[in-house]
Amino acid sequence: MAVDETARRLEGEISAGNLSRAKDYVEQAIRLYIKDVAELERRKKYLARRCEGDEGCVFYWGILCVLTNDRPGWDIVARFLGDNMDPSLGYHSFRFLNAQTSDNERLEAWKFLIEDSAARGHIQSRNFVFDKDVARIGFLKWPVILAQRIWIGIVFLFLYVRNPRDPRLPIVGSAHESVRSSV
Fold first, then answer.
1. Which residues contact 174 (CB under 8 A, 6 or more apart)?
2. C-alpha closest to that of 46 among 79, 69, 74, 13
3. Residues 71-96, buried b or exposed e (16+ Cβ, 10 A)?
4. What does the mean pLDDT of the chain come to?
5. Phi (first) and psi of residue 113, to 5 degrees
6. CA distance 25 to 8
7. What pLDDT is stored for residue 133 in this prediction?
8. Hey, is 176 helix, strand or coil?
9. Among 16, 78, 85, 138, which residue's CB has the most CB atoms within a 10 Å radius?
10. The whole model's pTM is what?
11. Quick check: 31 and 182 in contact, CB under 8 A?
12. pLDDT tens, 107-154?
């Protein structure tokens, strides 16, 4: 488990106080090591010692908590961010977890992430939860899905007109835009 040069450089920048580099550090971990839980755990521990209350850093540390199956760590993230939690955090964490594992039991244990994002108004999360719920209704499935998609489109347009940078929208630019684009 040799640390690559980019990770070493990013760790040096983070240690020097540039916590905004946590984004690149975690993105690299997801891109290169999503199946290597030991490396993800190492990076999670590294960030835990350096986040110092920075919300952006804690956001990315939360993703690593999910990928390393650290529920107590996630609970710390949720308490720290509270109402300031980006609505997309649970959605993206769950999507990365889904890319990492096919263990249905583990995915079911973390399903609350996407449900919480849906409750916070994140549009993609709402669609995901709705699709899971509708899958059980049989032949009425497609008309119900069509009606829901039309409704979500109206909500999307309303949110976009009010605030094009609303974090509940799937195409907006927020502090965590690059995580959204890597999903």
1. 86, 88, 165, 167, 180
2. 13
3. eebbebbbebeeeebbbbbbbbbbbb
4. 84
5. -60, -50
6. 10
7. 77
8. coil
9. 85
10. 0.74
11. yes
12. 999 999 999 999 998 888 888 888 787 777 776 777 777 888 888 888
Q: What's the CA gap between 133 and 94, in Å, rounded? A: 17
Token pair listed for 75: 């609970």
Residue 124, judged by CB atoms within 10 A of its CB (0-12, 13-18, 19+), counts as buried
Residue with tokens 């839980």: 37
Q: What is the pLDDT of residue 173?
A: 45
- Residue 35 exposed, middle or buried by CB count within 10 Å (0-12, 13-18, 19+): exposed
CA angle, 51 as apex, 47 and 52 as ends, to 5°?
145
CB-based contact 50:57 (threshold 8 Å)? yes
